[in-house]
Amino acid sequence: MKLILLSGGSGKRLWPLSNDSRSKQFLKVLAGPEDRLESMVQRVWRQLEQVGLQSSAIVATSRSQVDILHNQIGHDVPVVMEPERRDTFPAIALAVSYIHSELKAGENEAVAVLPVDSYVEDHFFSKVLQLQRMVEGGGADLALIGVEPTFPSAKYGYIVPEEGGDKTAEFRKVSHFHEKPVETVAAELIARGALWNCGVFAFRIGWLVRQIEQLQFPTDYSELKGRYEELPKISFDQQIVEKTGNIAVLPYDGSWKDLGTWNTLTEEMDTPLIGKGTISVDSENTHLINELDIPVAILGVPNAVVAVSPDGVLVSDKAASPRLKEVLTFDQRLMYEECPWGWYRVLDYKRYGEETEMLTKRVSIAAGRKIRSHYHKRRQEVWTILFGEGEVTVGGETRAVRAGDVVTIAPLVRHGIRAVSELELVEVQTGSEVTDEDIWEREE
C-alpha cells in the first residue's frame, strides 16, 4: 500500500506562529522523544515509521512548504509539489499520477490518504493498514476511517452508516455525509451511529485513474503537472467522495484531535511555557509560546493563550481563539522563514521618504550549506558576520569570512555565501525596494 500525506494550509488559524510558509503542522510545540519538542508533521512521520509505513509514503505539498518540510523530516522524503494551490482533489490526483506513472505501482494497489496535522495515538496507523484489505479485495471503492465521537461537535463532519447494518461488523456501509451540523443535530446523528470524519481514506490506484480520465485529463505525471492549472479547484470530498456509492467506513475508538486552533493545540502541550517568560500562579490554564528573545510576563490572566513571534503578538481567551481569522484583516511580509540553507528572522523595517526602504535580518546558515549566487536590482546589502566561518563570493572574487567581518554588496553585483561552520550574520538591505521578488539568479 502507498500512502499520500497531505501537507497544505495557509497558516492563519495559529497566527502569529504560523504563516504562508510555516503552517500549523510545522510548529514545534508538542512533546517528542528525549524531551525534545516536535511538530505535528514530525510526530506523524515518526509514527509511520513505527508501523512500517514510512517507506511507502510521499508528501503532497505546495512550493512554499518544501524547504521547511525537508528541514523537519529529511531531504530524502519523496515530495510531489503542486505548481499552485488548488485544493485537495488536484493535489491527490497529481500524487496518484506520480505513484502510477513514475513509481509504476499496479492499478489494483491501494493508496491511503491522510492529513499530516491530526493528533492520534500510535495504534491509529494500524487502522490505516486495515483499509488496504477492504479496497484491494473489492469490498468497496472507498474505505474511510471514522472516529467514534466523544461529544456532539459542530466543528466536524459526520459519516452516517446505513441503518439496520451490523454495528459490530469491522466495516460498515456508508449511507451519506453530514458536514458540520449544529450540536442538536450532531447528537441525533451520534445516536444513529454516525462517526467523525477524520479525513483518512483509501482506494485502488486504477479506480482514481479512471476518475481522472473521465474528466479528460492525462494520467501521466509530467503531462498532468503541465495542465495542473486546468484541474477543477475543488475538494476531494466534493469531487469524488460525495459522488461515490460504494463506500465503507472503519470505526476507530481512540483518541483523535484536529489541532487546528490554539485552544485544541494547547490541550496537547506538555508545558504551559515555551520560550522566555513567566506565568503567575493565578493565571490558571494559560499558555505562553514566545519565539522572541525578549521576556513576556503574564499576571492574573487565566484560560488564555499568548503567542509571540516575529510576525506578531496574539493575546486571546482560549474559547475565543477559533475566531482568530475575524481579526486578521492586515497583510504583511513574512517575518520568519525556514530555508534550504537555514533560516532568517526580520529584525526591523523602515521607510525613509518615498524612495528608500531599509530592512534588517538575522540570518543563520547551517554548516556546509550555502546561499547560491544571485544579485539584486533595487537594493544594496551589508553583511556583518556575527559568528562562525564561511566563504563569501562577491563579483567573482571569493574570500574567507569570520566573526567581525563586514561585506558590502552593491546592486547588480553577484554574490553568495557558504558556511564552513554554522554561521550567523546580520543583513541590512537598503534601496528603493526591499522584497524577496528582487532576487535574481540568472542573467536576463
Descriptive overview:
This is Cupin domain-containing protein. InterPro entries: Cupin_2, Mannose-6P_isomerase_type2, NTP_transferase_dom, Nucleotide-diphossugar_trans, RmlC-like_jellyroll, RmlC_Cupin_sf. GO terms for molecular function: mannose-1-phosphate guanylyltransferase (GTP) activity. It comes from Cohnella xylanilytica. The protein is α+β, with helices and mostly antiparallel strands and 444 residues long. The chain has three domains: 257 residues, Spore Coat Polysaccharide Biosynthesis Protein SpsA, Chain A; 65 residues, no CATH class; 91 residues, Jelly Rolls, CATH 2.60.120. The chain is built from nine helices and 29 strands. The strands form seven sheets. A six-stranded antiparallel β-sheet has the order 20-21-22-29-24-27. A five-stranded mixed β-barrel has the order 8-11-9-10-12. A hairpin with a 5-residue loop joins strand 2 and strand 3. Helix 3 packs across helix 6. The longest helix is centred in the N-terminal third of the chain and has 15 residues. The two termini are 46 Å apart.
CATH topology of the largest domain: Spore Coat Polysaccharide Biosynthesis Protein SpsA, Chain A
Distance between the termini: 46 Å
Q: Which parts are unreliable, with pLDDT below 50 for 5 consecutive residues or more?
A: none
User: Judging by the overall fold, what is the CATH architecture of the largest domain?
Assistant: Alpha-Beta Complex
Q: What is the average per-residue confidence, as pLDDT, rounded to a whole number?
A: 92
- What's the arrangement of strands in the largest beta sheet? 20-21-22-29-24-27
By CATH reckoning, the class of the largest domain would read Alpha Beta
Shape: globular
- Beta-strand portion reads 35-45%
Helix content: 10-25%
Q: Give a count of the beta strands, DSSP E runs of length 2 or more.
A: 29
